[in-house]
TrEMBL record:
Record localization: Cytoplasm, Cytoskeleton
Pfam families given in the database record: Dynein_light
The keyword Nucleotidyltransferase belongs to this UniProt entry's keyword annotation: no
GO molecular function (one): dynein intermediate chain binding
Protein family: Belongs to the dynein light chain family.
This protein's name: Dynein light chain
One GO-annotated biological process of the protein: microtubule-based process
SMART domains in the cross-refs: Dynein_light
InterPro entries assigned: DLC_sf, Dynein_light_chain_typ-1/2
Keyword annotations: Cytoplasm, Cytoskeleton, Dynein, Microtubule, Motor protein
Predominant cellular place of this UniProt entry's protein: cytoplasm
Length: 127
């Protein structure tokens, strides 16, 4: 029994090291894109896609921020990749209170722009 406990302890320790390394790599990537996560209920691969899409759109905008264009680009990207009913709000100052599907919420800032991306459930209307 003692050997099994030692194996479990070592396994937990190695797992914690792996998680710390992944978290550090994620933070380094976020720093490169100048991203700061404010709140999230979204898997990391989807978050990374949102960050990259937002960064690419912002970099392609000459001069002034076009928040509608950025919101539309993120919405279209997520609708086409992950199914319908994604919503996106972009701006430098806004309030919100939304209901979202599980695993479909991300609020982050990139440069001085704040982005709220979330998914809602699509249910057929009963008539």
């Amino acid at each position: 029994m003692e050997a099994a406990e030692e194996l479990e302890r070592r396994s937990k320790f190695l797992n914690s090291l792996i998680q710390k390394k992944k978290a550090k790599e994620q933070q380094e990537q976020n720093d490169q894109l100048n991203v700061r996560v404010r709140a999230s209920d979204m898997p990391l691969p989807l978050q990374n896609k949102a960050f990259k899409c937002a960064r690419d759109q912002l970099d392609s905008m000459p001069g002034k921020l076009d928040s509608k264009r950025l919101a539309l680009a993120l919405k279209k990207e997520f609708d086409s990749s992950y199914g319908p009913a994604w919503h996106c709000i972009v701006g430098t100052s806004f309030g919100s209170y939304v209901t979202h599907s599980l695993g479909g919420f991300l609020y982050f800032s990139i440069d001085k722009v704040y982005i709220l991306l979330f998914k809602t459930a699509v249910e057929p209307l009963d008539h």
